Amino acid sequence: MDVRSVVIQGLAILIICTFIELGAGFMLKGMEERFMLIPGLAIMTLPLLDLRGNINGALASRLGTALHTGVISPRLKLTAELTANLSASLILSLITSATIGVLSWLMGSMMGLPVNILQLMVIAVIAGFISGLVLALLTVLVAVFTYLRGWDPDNITSPAMSTIGDLMTVTCIYLAVLLVG
Amino acid sequence: MSVYSIRRIMLESYPILFICVLIGLFAGGTLEKSLTGIKGTLVIMMVPLLNGIGGNLGCILGARLGSALHLGTVEPRLKGRVLRKNVHASVLTSIGIFLFISVIFFVIACMWGMGFVMAAKHALAFILAGMLLTPVIVVSVVTLAFLSFQKGLDPDNVVIPIATSIIDVAAAISLLIVAITIVGL
Predict the structure, then answer these.
(1) Count of pairs with CB atoms under 8 A, one residue in A, one in B
(2) Whether the Cβ atoms of residue A128 and residue A91 lie closer than 8 Å to each other
(3) So what's the pLDDT on residue B156?
């Protein structure tokens, strides 16, 4: 392997990711006041960001394998295999977001914050589910597109998807916060 | 008979996701505790950048090591040229991208109406936190890749989720410590 080409390819994709993550950064800065108003919101923001990357990263890597082995054909049709993958990702999003809501409440209580479990649960589940739905559909599109283009999913699809996932998740958390008030 | 079952994907994924949530809560708790300390600075804006880009660096190294272990070009031992070159490439990439981002934060801080000293402090905080994070990324990814490969687990499924959670915690903690304690933002 050539260190130079790995560094150059890595830097190229990471510079693009930097600009997308900056969007997420501006969004968080804009939410700073809300973080002060809703105790526990800052606690769950980081696990929710992490969750999005993990669920879609796994979905992207399963789809990559399925496309390479021919289990899923690179066409946008809801076959049984694709449906199972999508449903599993969505159910996981829902259950794990609820887990994050409960555990953030628990952590906040232990830190002595005046946390409201209902408020945290609703924000976590709405943000987790909406971003999960959007990201799952986007992951399928990107996986099929990159496969048809012949790009390496390890080096391009995963970092790109996790970064877009961060921006989407912060946006959905903000929407959920606005909805809950 | 379909290849993928919802039940199987969920049973295999949920335990790992649960561990990731537990690790991630420490990052979140640290951020929550530091909120008043970082008010009026751009530190909160840096959080997704250090976490996200740090995670991406870990993902790329993890994916490369996973493929190399499967191909047999890297053995799960701490020596060999291919491993050294992969680590070397990751460290160089991380120095390059973290320097680039710290320059961007210098510019954003200036445009935000902060003075030269404050903008320079923002850039310094980011680059210091990035340099603290780099060894954590390399050590956690290499350790997890080798351990999972030796245990017969697929590194592709285990390394990336757990490594990104560890990187998130390390990133949030190092950023907040550097920003508040060392640089004094």
Answers:
(1) 215
(2) no
(3) 67
Nearest residue of chain B to residue A30 (CA atoms):
B45
Would you state the pLDDT for residue A155? 67
Question: Which of A18, A19, A50 is best to mutate for the B interface (most B CBs within 10 A)?
Answer: A50
Interchain CB contact of B81 with A (< 8 Å): no
Contact B111, B132 (CB under 8 A): no
The domain in which residue A40 lies consists of 3-180
Distance (Å, rounded) from C-alpha A39 to C-alpha B185?
Answer: 23
Please write the tens of the pLDDT for every residue from B6-64. Answer: 888 888 889 889 999 999 999 999 999 999 889 889 999 999 999 999 999 998 898 88
Those of residues 68-97 in A touching chain B at CB distance below 8 A are 71, 80-81, 84-85, 87-89, 91-92, 95-96
Task: For A154-173, write each residue's pLDDT tens digit.
Answer: 667 778 888 898 999 999 99
Q: Are A103 and B27 in contact (CB under 8 A)?
A: no
Average pLDDT over residues A44-70: 85
Please report the residues numbered 86 through 105 in chain B whose beta carbons come closer than 8 angstroms to any beta carbon of chain A: 86, 88-90, 92-93, 96-97, 100-101, 104
How far apart (Å, rounded) are the C-alpha atoms in residues B144 and B155?
A: 8
Chain A CB contacts of B153 below 8 Å: none
> Could you give the ipTM of this predicted complex?
0.88
- The number of distinct structural domains making up chain A is 1
Q: Where are the domains of chain B?
A: 6-182
Whether the CB-CB separation of A24 and A166 falls below 8 Å is answered with yes
Alpha carbon distance A61, A45 (integer Å): 24
Is B21's CB within 8 Å of A62's CB? Answer: no
B6-182: which CATH architecture? Answer: Orthogonal Bundle (1.10)
Q: How far are the Cα atoms of A89, A92, B8, B57, B176 from residue B11, in angstroms, in the given order?
A: 12, 10, 5, 28, 35
CATH number of the domain encompassing residue A7: 1.10.357.20
Mutation target for B interface from A9, A14, A71, A100: give the one with most B CBs within 10 A.
Answer: A14
